[in-house]
């Protein structure tokens, strides 16, 4: 008889804080005020930081990027080209609550398993992606967009 339970790895509190700290350092290096959200493997918020000077509108965007990346196990930066080429896919993605198809959401993997994701909203989409990639790499491996 097979077990009715499934064991999954999840990002720890301390690792989530390391991701936040790494994102803040990279944002400061780039000279942008970032909002950073870290979620667990299920997309539930684990850690959050809003830098002084960041826009209030970025709060939900960062959380949605992190959720989107955890939910699909993909960097959100991959979606722009895919949705541009496939209007049915674009329509489907836009219908899912909390999905944000903008660069800056990156899964965090450990031993090949997604343990969480980071979402960043700061400046340009390129800056968001760079900050998120750097932050994810602080505790695991990031999947490039």
UniProtKB/TrEMBL annotation:
Domain of life of the source: Bacteria
Alphabetical list of Pfam families matching this protein: HbpS-like
Matches recorded under InterPro entries: GlcG_carb_metab_protein, PduO/GlcC-like, PduO/GlcC-like_sf
Protein name according to UniProt: Heme-binding protein
Provenance organism: Arthrobacter ramosus
Source taxonomy: Bacteria, Bacillati, Actinomycetota, Actinomycetes, Micrococcales
């Amino acid at each position: 008889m097979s077990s009715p339970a499934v064991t999954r790895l999840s990002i720890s509190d301390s690792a989530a804080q390391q991701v936040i700290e790494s994102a803040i350092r990279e944002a400061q290096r780039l000279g942008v005020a970032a909002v950073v959200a870290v979620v667990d493997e299920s997309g539930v918020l684990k850690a959050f930081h809003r830098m002084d000077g960041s826009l209030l509108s970025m709060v939900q965007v960062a959380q949605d990027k992190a959720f989107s990346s955890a939910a699909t196990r993909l960097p959100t930066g991959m979606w722009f080209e895919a949705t541009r080429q496939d209007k049915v896919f674009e329509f489907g993605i836009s219908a899912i609550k909390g999905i944000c198809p903008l660069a800056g959401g990156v899964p965090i993997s450990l031993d090949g398993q997604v343990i969480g994701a980071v979402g960043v909203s700061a400046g340009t989409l390129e800056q968001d992606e760079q900050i998120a990639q750097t932050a994810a790499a602080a505790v695991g491996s990031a999947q490039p967009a």
